[in-house]
Amino acid sequence: MSRYKDYQLIEKLSNVVGNEVTLRGWVYNQRGKGKLQFIILRDGTGIAQCVVFRDNVTEEVFESAKRITQESSLSVTGVVRADERAPGGFEIDVTDLKIIQIAQDYPIAKKEHGDAFLMKHRHLWLRSSRQHAILRVRAAVIKAIRDFFDGSGFTLVDSPILTPNACEGTSTLFETKYFDLGSAYLSQSGQLYAEAGAFALGRVYTFGPTFRAELSSTRKHLTEFWMVEPEMAFFDLEDDMDLAEDFVEYIVQYVLKTCRKELEILERDTTKLENIKRPFYRMSYTDAVDWLVKNDIPIIKKIDNQDVEIRPFPWGEDFGTVQEEAFMEQFDKPCIIHHYPTEVKAFYMKRDESNPKVVCALDMLGPEKAGELIGGSQREDNFDLLLERIKAENLPEEAFEWYLDLRRYGSVPHSGFGLGVERTVKWITGAKHIRECIPMPRMIDRIYP
RNA sequence: UCCCGAGUAGCUCAGCUGGUUAGAGCACCUGACUGUUAAUCAGGGGGUCCACAGUUCAAGUCUGUGCUCGGGAGCCA
């Protein structure tokens, strides 16, 4: 038996039909109809319609029922009845009602609101059914991530958030003072540390928040987001791709299994998710470029501050949103694009032995404009080649001594990838903006609430 | 950072080629109703028209600058 308060939850009402119960929660909506008051109560697990009929309660209780406002907190006692007319399916014939607190002028009305207003009231917006459902799916996605790795021989190895240098040397980082040691930066990836972990424990994953100070303001970017990064010793790119597919399939199927109700609230077309089963699609970068050329998809580049369309798409350029979305329209499942040009990818990616112009990298793009869900690669395990890349990118060699040590002492082929939690939640829920996929989003120009 | 758009009631918005007293729906308050589903009906209160400067007899409306917000691009997960 639990040692803490054990009270009736709305999601468990089906077990107690005919019984008198006491619910505790908040008023989601309220309608008066003369001698009848309908109160929609929510307690975090569901909603239940509480019916207060004047002839069934004391005058005092009925007056209380008329006084309550949206989001007031209550405890309600009554007999449970299944009723098709009730949202949630169950109704409470109220015999007693206690007001815990009357909410005055709750800002979020039953009508529509603009995004700016809702973001300013994010702490209250979380109470609405859509946001509630998205957060439940997010929790399920995270549970699926942990179950998947914990159940297949991986060890969780968390990487530091404060780091002494740029991981990939490209992104803009958040900088902070670090005692007498100069500057520290908020981590933008745990991968390099995960590699050390993989050489100690074989198969590891790191899971935590990640920070990017880039000035990106789109509906698929956050400045603070959660990323899970598995790293596997003795995995080559093929193994890496196989794992990425198994992983994404597992997450989607787990959410389908455990979040039916939430997906229904979100009006998500679940047939599209049911279809997310292996095998996914795969294509090399070079073949993808051929497809872009064949379909006359150009690249738009800024030359002298002017947008210029270049066609045919030149081999060697990275894909942007236009190319990704056009390319993915042909697929109903994720597609992995692999073997990207060396120049557009990070220094630690392993060069393909038969063609040094490309690296053993993979990006998994999601269908339905989900964008890039996963980025990963086989890592460069050759000491000389890695050092050469560090020098070519003008990275501070001293800072990477420990990383080079991994190639000095028992280097082995290894691979890994990173999956963005919020991007995955956005895809699965069909949320229109990534800021809805994390409780308190951090974006350029927004750090409140 | 660049490009585009928007700031008018607590919220969502309308407000014409500048014209005298500023509009609607919702929310809120009062009243009516035993079955409401964003209830409905009747009545009521509610405004620094983002800020500053300018043009004009006259600015919510036109011009400039700034601020805030939204959408897109690049970068990425």
Keywords:
449 residues, alpha+beta, OB fold (Dihydrolipoamide Acetyltransferase, E2P), BirA Bifunctional Protein, domain 2, 9-stranded mixed sheet, 13 helices, 19 strands, RNA-binding
Written overview of the protein:
The protein is an alpha+beta fold. It has two domains: 3-101, Nucleic acid-binding proteins (OB fold (Dihydrolipoamide Acetyltransferase, E2P), Beta Barrel); 122-437, Bira Bifunctional Protein, Domain 2 (BirA Bifunctional Protein, domain 2, 2-Layer Sandwich), CATH 3.30.930.10. The chain is built from 13 helices and 19 strands. Strands 6, 10, 11, 12, 15, 16, 17, 18 and 19 form a nine-stranded mixed sheet that branches. Strands 1-2-3-5-4 form a five-stranded mixed beta barrel. A hairpin with a 4-residue loop joins β2 (36-42) and β3. The chain is elongated, with a radius of gyration of 27 Å. The model has no long low-confidence stretch (mean pLDDT 90). The structure holds one RNA strand of 77 nucleotides.
